[in-house]
Design brief:
The complex is a heterodimer.
Chain A: E1 15-24, E2 27-30, E3 33-37, H1 44-54, H2 67-80, E4 93-99, H3 104-115, H4 124-127, H5 134-143, E5 149-153, H6 159-171, E6 177-186, E7 189-199, E8 213-214, H7 217-223
Parallel strand pairs in A: 4-5, 4-6
Antiparallel strand pairs in A: 1-2, 1-7, 1-8, 2-3, 6-7
Helix pairs in contact in A: 1-2, 2-5
Chain B: H1 2-15, H2 41-55, H3 65-68, H4 72-82
Helix pairs in contact in B: 1-4
Classes of the chains: A alpha+beta, B mainly alpha.
Chain lengths: 227, 86
């Protein structure tokens, strides 16, 4: 199926990307502004902890999350900071995320923990993260969101697929705004992008530093290549 | 007992990824759940694994968990009475 083919660019112009975050190649951008850079990344764990500390996030459960959830959590923290507090009802904000490795990073960790039958101690706290959509759950718990959510797995980033899913949700008024993007990690290779998409009649001028972008195939593709 | 309590504190911090918590932050008599460290149900399962992995203790009856995991001290007392390794 050719995603995005049935959605002409002009039909999506009523929806705007009002904020976005990109994490990749050691850099973190919030609305095109570089806020964090680690030239030499030793491990993902060190990178994300340094970002967590720099941004002074206080959420002890962060340390218990797997890598995929830590990446998604921090991306959403930066995306939603000062942006959306109190603007939407809990059930009026949807989340659509995607990646290519699903929860494989954690699946491998879990498999390692049960490989040795003579020291067979499966970790419940690792096991609970062996599903990719848990990252959405962590974001929802943090912010109290109860809206529709979907996690998609595709070999490569598919802007058309994302455009279709988000447009369908917003056009049918199943949500007033949607967080969408890509959260991918396998070992120390990682990349994340999240965008906040809103119907233009709901937007308040909270972010004077960033001019909203039309929610289009071109814009979504560009956000994945901010670096 | 004090030595075991300190050892347990370290193990709990590591096993439950309590990175912002130091040994001194844990009162050995404070409840582990509901208040204090604010542990959840997954943490309870991790504590069961910890007892089995580090001390060779299997909790056969889940109902015993409430008493055993009330605090670090009650854990230490149970370990002292039932330890098979470590």
């Amino acid at each position: 199926m050719q995603y995005g083919a049935g959605v002409p660019e002009n039909l999506t112009m009523d929806k705007l990307i009002t904020s976005f975050v990109y994490i990749g190649e050691g850099k973190v951008f919030v609305n095109k502004r570089l806020i964090f850079y680690q030239e030499k990344i030793v491990t993902f764990a060190e990178f994300i902890k340094a970002l967590y500390k720099q941004e002074q996030v206080s959420y002890p459960k962060f340390y218990k999350m797997d890598s995929l959830s830590k990446l998604g959590f921090m991306t959403s923290e930066l995306l939603l900071r000062n942006e959306i507090q109190g603007r939407y009802q809990a059930d009026s904000l949807a989340i659509v995320l995607a990646n290519s490795s699903s929860s494989l990073d954690t699946d491998i960790n879990y498999q390692e923990s049960i490989r040795d039958r003579s020291a067979y101690f499966p970790s419940p706290s690792v096991f609970v993260y062996t599903l990719a959509n848990i990252v959405i759950g962590e974001i929802c718990i943090r912010h109290g969101f109860k809206g529709e959510n979907t996690f998609l797995i595709s070999e490569k980033f598919n802007s058309g697929q994302l455009l279709d899913f988000v447009s369908e949700i917003l056009d049918n008024r199943r949500a007033e705004a949607c967080i969408c993007g890509w959260v991918e990690i396998l070992g120390n290779q990682f990349k994340a992008m999240m965008a906040l998409v809103e119907n233009d009649n709901t937007i308040l001028p909270l972010n004077p530093d960033f001019r909203p972008l039309p929610f289009s195939l071109t814009a979504i593709t560009d956000l994945m290549n901010v670096n | 007992m004090d030595e075991l309590i300190n050892k347990l504190k370290k193990e709990v911090i590591t096993q439950l990824n309590l990175e912002d918590i130091s040994l001194d932050d844990i009162n050995p008599d404070a409840p582990l759940f509901g208040e204090g460290l604010g542990l959840d149900s997954i943490d309870a399962l991790e504590l069961i694994v910890l007892l089995e992995k580090n001390y060779g203790i299997k909790i056969e009856d889940p109902k015993d968990g409430k008493k055993i995991f009330h605090s670090i001290r009650t854990m230490a007392e149970y370990i002292t009475a039932h330890q098979t390794k470590g």
